[in-house]
Amino acid sequence: MLPNASCVLGLDGGGSRTLCLVVDGEGRELGRALAGPCNHQSVGVEAAMAALAEAMASARRAANDPPLAAACLGMAGLDRDEDLRLIRQMVEPLLPGIPVEIVHDADIALAAATGGRRFGVVVISGTGSIAVGFDAAGRRARAGGWGHLLGDEGSGYDIARRGLNAAARAYDGRAPATKLVERLVSAAGAASLEDLANRVYLEGWTVGQVAALAPAVLAPRTPPTSGSACAVRWPGTSPRSPSCWASGWTSSAWARRPSLRPRR
C-alpha cells in the first residue's frame, strides 16, 4: 500500500478511447478523464500522444494535481519491442521524473479480473482482439494482437468490416438482400451506403470509428438476415458451428443463391 500522501496514475489506452484515473494511497479515486483513441498503430503517433496528453492532464487536474509516486499504463498496440520504444518516447515528456510501468492493455484487464494477480487467461474482443495468459510461474503467452491489417479476428473492427463487405455485396446484387444495408447506414447516420462509403474513405475514418459499427452487425433480428450470418461466420466453419455464436442462423440462408438486381 502506498503512503496516503502518494498518488498513482493509471491509464487504459485503447483503440476507441483512453481512460485515465488518479488514485490515492488507499486506492480511492481522486480524478478521472476520457480522451480519444491512443493506439499508435491505428491513429498514428501524433494523435496517440495528443490523446495521452489530454487524458493525463485532465485526470490530474480533476484530482487537483497531486504529486505522483508512480504510473501504470495498459496500452493497446504494445505488441513488439519497437512499440514499447515508441510508447516510452510518447510518455516520458508527459510524466517527467515519474516511475512508469507500461504493459499491454490485456495485462491490466487480467489483473482487474483476478484482484491484481497475474495468473489466468484473458481474451479481449474490443476494437482489436488478443488472448493473453500467465501460468503460476509468471510465464506469459499470447495469441493475436497483430493489428487490424494482419489479424484482430473477431474484434469490433473485424466484425464491422465483414458486415460492411456483406452489405456492399448485397447492394450490388452479388449476395442475398440483407437488412445490414439499412442498419449500417442508420448506425452511421448516413443517407445511403454510398454516403457511408464516402465518409469512410474521404473523411479517413479511424479503426475505432469503423469498429463502432459492430453492434449494428450483431444486433439480434427475428428472423436473422443471411448477411449478418455471413458477417460473423469465420473461414473454415459451417453455419451450425459454435463460431456462429452471434447468429444462431440455420443453413437455409446459405443455400439461397444471390439474384442479380440492377444497382440502385
User: Which overall shape is indicated by the principal axes computed on the Cα atoms?
Assistant: globular
CATH class assignment of the largest domain: Alpha Beta
Largest sheet: 5 strands, mixed
Q: Structural class, please?
A: alpha/beta
Helicity, as a percent range: 25-40%
Q: How many strands in all?
A: 8
Model regions low in confidence, pLDDT < 50 over at least 5 residues: 239-264
Amino-to-carboxy terminus distance: 64 Å
Our count of domains comes out at 2
What string, H for helix and E for strand, traces the elements in order?
EEEHHEHEHEEEHHHHHHHH
Oligomer: single chain
- Side by side, the strands of the main sheet go 3-2-1-4-5
Radius of gyration: 21 Å
Summarize the structure.
The chain is an alpha/beta fold and 264 residues long. Helices cover 39% and strands 19% of the residues. The protein has 12 helices and 8 strands.
Structural summary, described in words:
This protein is of the alpha/beta class and 264 residues long. It folds into two domains: 7-149, 2-Layer Sandwich (Nucleotidyltransferase, domain 5); 154-255, ATPase, nucleotide binding domain (Nucleotidyltransferase, domain 5). It is 39% helix and 19% strand. The chain is built from twelve helices and eight strands. The protein has helices at 40-43, 45-62, 81-91, 105-113, 147-150, 156-172, 180-188, 193-202, 207-211, 214-218, 226-231, 252-255; strands at residues 7-13, 18-23, 29-35, 68-75, 100-104, 120-125, 129-134, 140-144. Strands 3-2-1-4-5 form a five-stranded mixed β-sheet. A three-stranded antiparallel β-sheet has the order 6-7-8, covered by helices on one side. The termini are far apart. Mean pLDDT is 80; it is low at 239-264.
